Amino acid sequence: MSDGIGARVKRKEDKRFITGKGKYTDDIRMENQAYAAFVRSPHAHAKVKGIDASAAEAMEGVVAVLTGAQLTGDGIGNLICGWAINSKDGSPMNMGPWSALATDRVRYVGDAVAVVIADSQKLARNAAEAVVVDYEELPAVAHADRALAKGAPQVHDNAPGNLIYDWGIGDDAATQAALKGSAHVTELHVTNNRLSPNPMEPRSAVATYDEAEDHYTLYTTSQNPHVARLVLSAFYNVAPEHKLRVIAPDVGGGFGSKIYIYPEEITCLWASMKTKRSVKWTSDRTEAFMTDAHGRDHITTAKMGFDKDGKITGFHVDTVANFGAYMSLFSSAVPTYLYATLLSGQYDIHNIYCNVRAVYTNTVPVDAYRGAGRPEACYLIERMMETAAREMGMDPAELRRRNFIQSFPHQTPVIMNYDSGDFPGNLDKALKAADIAGFPARKAEAAKRGKLRGIGYSCYIEACGIAPSAAVGSLGAGVGLWESAEVRVNPVGTIEILTGSHSHGQGHETTFAQIVSDRFGVPIDNVSIVHGDTDKVQMGMGTYGSRSGAVGMSAIVKAMDKVEAKVKKIAAHVLEASEDDIVIEGGEVKVAGTDRKMAWHEVGLAAYTAHNLPAGMEPGLKEGAFYDPVNFTFPAGAYIAEVEVDPDTGVTKIVQFTAADDFGTIINPNIVEGQVHGGVAQGIGQAILEQVVYDEGGQLLTGSYMDYAMPRADDVPFYTIEHNTTVCPNNPLGIKGCGEAGAIGAPPAVINAITDAIGTNDLQMPATPARVWAALNAARAPMAAE
Amino acid sequence: MATISMTVNGKAVKRAVPDNTLLSEFLREHLRLTGTHVGCDTSQCGACVVHVDGRAIKSCTALAASLDGATVTTIEGLANGDLHPMQKAFNDNHGLQCGFCTPGMIMSGVDMVARYKAEGRELTEAAIRHELEGNICRCTGYHNIVKSIQQAAAEM
Ligand code: FES
Ligand code: FES
Question: What range(s) does the 2Fe-2S ferredoxin-type domain occupy (chain B) (predicted)?
Answer without folding.
Answer: 2-78
